[in-house]
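Need a sequence for this fold. Nothing fancy.
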């Protein structure tokens, strides 16, 4: 008895074998490439930063006082600039605030620095110390000073930069 080896009919045809091999090869290559990230690009790692870090507008709470744009950097520095409430009515002076901030407790920040004012009318230049504690309210995402609760700091951005389109500058910021 002469028996032929049993081979499935599909594998007996060399054309079918080649087509199946090509399809499997293409599928293997596609699966391997679809989840691969380009070289040098890592998934973004989340790094904790204090809630104070970012850009804030401080309204001292008085209609005759200017607004202040505060920028709190992640390395403990802050800078601010006075801005008129009405852009059509420029301030008769330049005023900047600069210094350092430090964590004090769980939601409080101690600010130490100075206010620098250049008065255009008198030509005078003054510098006064700044020592205050700001409290962060996580529910409303605002900062305030317990000693002056009417003056609230509203967040503009989590990025510590002057917002685009805002015509202000901070000389050393």
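Here you go.
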């Amino acid at each position: 008895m002469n028996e032929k080896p049993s081979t499935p009919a599909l594998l007996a045809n060399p054309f079918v074998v080649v087509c199946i091999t090509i399809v499997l090869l293409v599928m293997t290559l596609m699966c391997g490439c679809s989840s691969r990230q380009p070289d040098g690009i890592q998934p973004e790692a989340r790094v904790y930063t204090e809630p104070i870090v970012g850009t804030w507008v401080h309204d001292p709470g008085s209609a005759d006082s200017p607004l202040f744009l505060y920028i709190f950097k992640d390395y403990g520095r802050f800078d601010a600039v006075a801005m008129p409430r009405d852009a059509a009515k420029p301030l008769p002076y330049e005023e900047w605030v600069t210094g350092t901030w430090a964590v004090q407790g769980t939601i409080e920040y101690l600010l130490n620095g100075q206010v620098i004012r250049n008065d255009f009318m008198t030509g005078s230049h003054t510098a006064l110390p700044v020592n205050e504690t700001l409290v962060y309210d996580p529910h409303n995402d605002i900062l305030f000073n317990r000693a002056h609760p009417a003056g609230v700091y509203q967040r503009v951005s989590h990025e510590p930069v002057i917002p685009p389109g805002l015509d202000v500058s901070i000389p050393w910021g």
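For context: The mean pLDDT is 84.
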